[in-house]
Write a structure and sequence with these properties.
This protein is an alpha+beta fold. The chain folds into two domains: 3-88, no CATH class; 102-189, no CATH class. It has five helices and eleven strands. The chain has helices at 36-48, 115-125, 135-145, 167-179, 183-186; strands at residues 3-7, 10-19, 26-35, 52-56, 59-65, 70-76, 81-88, 102-108, 148-150, 152-155, 159-165. A hairpin with a 2-residue loop joins β4 and β5 (59-65). α2 packs across α3 (135-145). The relative contact order is 0.16.
């Protein structure tokens, strides 16, 4: 279902909106559909720092830019319409090796199948050696440590999570799990016959 989105006298339709879970105000993902000029106008206003009004269930929700770094893609449709998506750009300054933590955004359509993409992204983002059999254990660990923040989907069908990766602590947790012979971690090390 599309919802009306407005800013500065421009109106289009919101197809997807994911925001922070605390204030429901800061945009992580925004999808806008409509005429090309209105879609570009709404996305440009958001990137300039203007607030946007999205009508959800008869109420206006005001949202705004969270960061200065966003990725944007606009796709023209065969008709006069187009669809634009803007997504917060994670990791702009995260190549700093001295940084104790890194973040990444995980967006998924099926909440029951979120662990596999979580493991894949985590494996790509860390230098800590991981094993696919640890996926459930890692998901549970990140949840217990508060390293996973579920974001709020106001419009659309996606689920989103903000993942904080603490390299040193993760390495220490894995080492400790191996030392304590935690079954979820050491079972992959046993010989298979």
């Amino acid at each position: 279902m599309l919802h009306k989105i407005k800013t500065g006298g421009i109106e289009a339709y919101c197809s997807d909106l994911i925001v922070d879970n605390e204030t429901n105000q800061y945009v992580y993902l925004l999808g806008v559909a409509g005429y090309q000029t209105t879609v570009k106008g709404i996305l440009a206003n958001m990137l300039k720092g203007e607030s946007l009004s999205v009508e959800i269930k008869g109420e206006s929700c005001w949202v705004e830019r969270f960061s200065t770094n966003y990725l944007m893609q606009i796709k023209k449709m065969p008709s006069e319409y187009c669809h634009g998506i803007t997504l917060i750009k994670m990791g702009a300054n995260q190549s700093d090796e001295e940084s104790p933590s890194r973040e990444f955004l995980l967006i998924n359509e099926d909440p029951l199948k979120v662990k596999e993409p979580f493991y894949s992204h985590l494996d790509q983002k860390t230098e800590v050696p991981l094993h696919p059999d640890w996926t459930d254990w890692l998901w549970k660990l990140f949840g217990e440590k508060g390293w996973i923040t579920r974001l709020k989907t106001l419009v659309g069908k996606y689920d989103a999570y903000l993942i904080n990766l603490h390299q040193e602590e993760l390495s220490d947790e894995i080492t400790e799990a191996i030392r304590k012979k935690v079954p979820e971690v050491i079972n992959c090390m046993k010989r298979r016959e």
